[in-house]
Amino acid sequence: MFALAASTAAEAQRPGMGSFGRGRGPGKLTMAPGIDVPKPVNVINLLIENRATVALTDSQFTRVIAIKRQLDSTNAPSYRRIDSVQRLFKPGPVFADPSPQRRDSLASANAVVREMIADIEENIADAREKAFGLLSASQLPKAEEIEEKARKAGATPQRGRS
Fold first, then answer.
1. Contact call for residues 85 and 159 (beta carbons, < 8 A)
2. Closest CA to 122 of 42, 24, 20
3. Least packed by Cβ within 10 Å: which of 58, 77, 130, 139?
């Protein structure tokens, strides 16, 4: 009886076997690509997160927070547009070949996302200039090192005016 139970359990764990019947293997659905949204390195957030490492004074920190608020307000419309495009083109199963219209729409959506990311990175570059202008000669190398580590960790190419 034990041997019968063990063989039944082993049979149920084999691919293509079990309660779904013989011959039915695991599903092999093709997934439609979604929109690829690169995450820009936000140096202003890094300065805030690494306040102690950079040794920001209270005055500098307050000014960096003001720069962050302005940057967030400036970038909000671009992030909302990216989010809308991403929701339209979620990755999912493909049950047939995509139509030419779908491929064109996906290409247009990717172009919109690239444009929005370029705008965001340009805004970040402007904010970076303002924030780095507040730093002393001893703080600047620390901030640049933190930024470089973040870029390497995210493998995001440096864009904008940095």
1. no
2. 42
3. 58
Tell me yes or no: is domain 30-154 CATH 1.20.120: yes
* Residues comprising the chain, all counted: 162
Average pLDDT over all residues of the chain: 81
Alpha carbon distance 153, 118 (integer Å): 20
Would you state the pLDDT for residue 98? 67
Q: Collapsing DSSP states into helix, strand and coil, what is residue 33?
A: coil
Residue 76 has which token pair?
């909000």
SS3 125: helix
Query: Phi, psi (5° rounding) for residue 93?
Result: -70, 145
Q: Three-class SS of residue 126?
A: helix
For the chain, state the CA radius of gyration.
25
Contact 146, 51 (CB under 8 A): no
